[in-house]
């Protein structure tokens, strides 16, 4: 796979290890005849270490032999998240520290969760781009403050805290971006 074709979320092999691309920046050449550089921020899917990769647009990386399986959350305990494959009902477990930045978006009935399987082991999760969550606690809006676009913190059903516009009320369902953790809209 050419460096210029690699997208965020792609799993490639770098120095013999599978890494998932998490961020891309492109540096245009400053001189005539120079190559465009692609700088990738990646995470090793097995060891969870961060990796920085810099390539020219014509450099090649192999795509990792990786499976993405549709799963659903079964339950969590104090140390692990337990998932079940929707096709063959195989169960996977992930340590909570490996998914601590994603756990605030996961509910029991959430569709679109995909497990990243490498060597028959679940090494990570791929969440949908946005999820719907209900507000369990937020302060009421103050009348007369609607002229400015102020925000207030709202606690969602999973314990995640996001900043929402002042007109949002407790009990409403919201659409939240799973990549940034920001409020998108009412559901």
UniProtKB/TrEMBL annotation:
One GO term under biological process is: peptide biosynthetic process
- At the top level, the lineage of the source is Bacteria
Q: Does Protein biosynthesis appear among the keywords?
A: yes
> What is any one of the record's Gene Ontology cellular component terms?
cytosol
**Cited SMART domains:** EFP, Elong-fact-P_C
Q: Name one Pfam family in it.
A: EFP_N
Ranges for domain Elongation factor P C-terminal come to: 131-186
Q: Which InterPro entries match?
A: Elong-fact-P_C, NA-bd_OB-fold, Rib_uL2_dom2, Transl_elong_fac_P/YeiP, Transl_elong_KOW-like, Transl_elong_P/YeiP_cen, Transl_elong_P/YeiP_CS, Translation_prot_SH3-like_sf
Does Protein biosynthesis appear among the keywords?
Answer: yes
What are the record keywords, sorted?
Elongation factor, Protein biosynthesis
What Gene Ontology molecular-function terms does this entry list?
translation elongation factor activity
| Residue ranges of domain Translation elongation factor P/YeiP central in the record | 68-123
> According to its UniProt record, which protein family does this protein belong to?
Belongs to the elongation factor P family.
Concerning NCBIfam families, the annotation shows:
PRK00529.1
Name it: Elongation factor P-like protein
- Which organism is the protein's source? Neorhodopirellula pilleata
